[in-house]
Amino acid sequence: MEKLIITAAICGAEVLKEHNPAVPYTVAECVREAKSAYDAGASIIHLHVRYDDGTPTQDKARFKEVIDAIKAACPDVIIQPSTGGAVGMTDDERLQPTELLPEMATLDCGTLNFGGDEVFMNTENTIKYFGKRMIELGIKPELECFDKSMIDMALRLHKKGFIEKPMHFDFVMGVNGGIGGELRDFIFMRGSIPHDATYTVAGIGRYEFSLAMAAIVDGGHVRVGFEDNVYLSKGVLAKSNGELVEKVVRMAKELGREIATPAETREILGLKPIK
User: What predicted TM-score, i.e. pTM, was given to this entire model?
Assistant: First the structure.
């Protein structure tokens, strides 16, 4: 079985210090949280960025500032910028971090009702646009799928040349408006991707660790972090992203699964050399 790739989604665009005081906004706070996750065993940092007041932004300059600072502290870590941004941003606004030529970036594969009047828009043309841009720049997309229909969209667009193989999926499960986070839901998603694809599971809230366990056993990979869940256990706030990663590492060791280094992660995912 492949070694386990752990991704840490350190801050997201929606979670606030009101939810957990350790949620990072500033550059220094992002470095602190990224390093805590990296030191614990994460090889990928899934990155949103904020201004110092917590406002989410896709500004290229802010991304560069945060990425450079994280790389100074964790030189070999893989930085995976989000192109999801926040609800209401334009396609070109969301794509700004791809201009920095990261090794990976996320590519959302469908539209989702986030709750109330919030709709996270990803039309077919948006997905094609993002996919084409990533091919042109040599960036490996992590295909974020909040439901089975989004896997189907990714597979159709692969056939049309907008997404290249080998494909790497991220099942984001338990989000309002998307697929649930029960084991049956995981099995459904897992059985819907090609045999030569890899995948990561991001369980939201209470589903984070139960889905992590399922992925560890199945041979998949795991995402944890404040973007998805701020609790270490019921009612107990995590002190850092590193604590969440440490819990996954303990689970993996109990199940006999080794943790992938950044170099091993690059080999597993077939990342292209950095330009």
Answer: 0.97
